[in-house]
Specification:
single chain, Pnp Oxidase, Chain A, 8 strands, 33% strand, alpha+beta, eight-stranded antiparallel beta sheet, 4 helices
């Protein structure tokens, strides 16, 4: 990840956290959530702003990694455990994660790439199939 992206990410997380999502929950017209995962090697909590889309009650994440040839670290951390916590604006939720496949993947790819044309460009930049992750909220206590 470039220095510019790291700085943007840090500022976005800072603004999101201190304003409880009033700032930082939208970036370049895209909705942003904060994804809390555990580092698969370090065991430390990792906090990453990620664009999201809604599909019914589920949150949809695209592991595009800016079109790089490897999946983003947050994706590996999320898939290792299969659960995470997300902050969406001022609300925190526990979620289970799974990878979209088959017809669901095709439907969701059409949906997300129609809302963010960069995904189509990123897919052309890499040979890997960009994963789509479905986050399923757990019941509120």
């Amino acid at each position: 990840m470039s220095l510019g992206i790291r700085i943007l990410t840090t500022v976005n997380v800072w603004a999101f956290r201190i304003t409880h999502g009033v700032l930082g929950s939208s970036l370049a017209g895209q909705s942003v959530l904060l994804l809390h995962t555990l580092g698969r090697r370090s065991g430390n909590v990792r906090l990453t702003p990620v664009n999201y889309y809604l599909d019914g009650n589920n949150y949809i994440l695209v592991a595009s990694n800016w079109g790089n040839d490897n999946n983003p670290a947050w994706y590996h951390n999320l898939m290792e455990k299969g659960t995470a916590r997300i902050d969406v604006k001022s609300r925190t939720r526990e979620v289970a994660a799974r990878i979209a496949t088959g017809p669901e993947y095709e439907r969701l790819w059409t949906y997300v790439s129609g809302r963010n044309s960069f995904y189509t460009r990123y897919q052309r930049m890499t040979e890997r199939r960009i994963p789509i992750v479905v986050l399923i909220p757990k019941a509120d206590p």
